[in-house]
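Continuing the series of single-chain predictions for the mutant panel. This is the parent chain; the variants come on the following pages.
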Amino acid sequence: MSDTIFGESISLLRTRRFGTFWFASLLSNIGTWAQQVAQPWLLLSLGASSFLIGLDSFALSAPVWLLTLVGGVLADRADRRQVIAKFQSIQMLCPTLLVILLLAGMVRPWMIIVLSLVVGVTDALSMPSFQSIVPSIVERKQIASGLALNSTQFNLSRILGPAIAGILLVSVGAVGCFEVSAVSYVPFIAVALWILPRRVVTPAAAGTHEQRRHIFADALNIARVPYLRGALLTVFLSSLLCAQIVTFSPILVKNAFHGDAGHFSIVVGAFGVGGLAGAILLLFVSARQDRRLWSSWSAGAYGLVLVLAGLNPWFWALPVLLAAGGAAMSVSNISANTLVQANSPAQLRGQSVSLYLLAMRGGLSIGSLLTGVSVSLWGVNHALLINGALAMAAQGVVAHAWLRSALPRGDEIFQTTADAAK
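Parent structure:
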């Protein structure tokens, strides 16, 4: 295999199955990001407080705590195509309803938050199936390149989605963004039904009958492996403390820099540019390098970005900082996700993905609510400064233990997971 995964990634992108999946995911995520730019701006225009904006983000992410492990079990035991298609169809109804409410002049902040909760529930149940698709359609040695490529489309959508949203917000208003979001579900659902493989149920993971009766036992066993637990904790801390720079960037732009919707879309787009750069960077990283180093150092850098953003007095420095934050987040999370998926038993990959999503989305839900309170009390700049300082300190503690843990081989992961259940 090549020392880097760039060449392998280009050939993978040219295959019909992965290439079609990649493009459909890009279109879907463009619509999602257009909505995520428009939604907090719409809430602000309706007079919502910073707490309600944080509550909206909490509603979108909180269901992951209750349902994502259930979604992991569905990914391992059900037809992933059907799981994705059904829940994504329900999710598509939410921006469609917002379009109707906006055109009728009936939209209220509480309605937006309730619809975010519906999206959060469907996301929690379907995202493990979606995230485990890449390892299921590529060879094991291609997982790193497949995940990096999948992240490039996600971060490319973070550039294109906000750019489209910025144009629509100043021309036709938020309703245009929600229309784009609703339409963008169609090609992805079609691809899920057409190109993705049918789920073949595999035997349950090693363990006693009593252990298998608990549907979450396998996920808990995976989390007990120190090598994988370090990856999950790193992602959790970044989502808990650092991802709030995106959630509360509309308040930062509007209140601290007196910007408009165009400035906001520039800031969110800059985060996407950085995320795309980070994903592309990993395509050139040697496959032999320890991804724990990349994940830990980048997570610490993410915290530093928040500290600098809290101290920053100039608007045009903000997109630069957001780009740096996007790159740090992308490198850290992709590296951690690669470690989790590449080193988990294949028959439990859906549940290993659900743990990763629990760390990422669960941390975001709690962090959004807590940061919403701190922004209300001390202002957005001080809240970001505190979050960044806490993140750097916490990531240092996690990295100290994680980097000292033994690097297990694939077959040792199977044995360790089975031993943990005893």
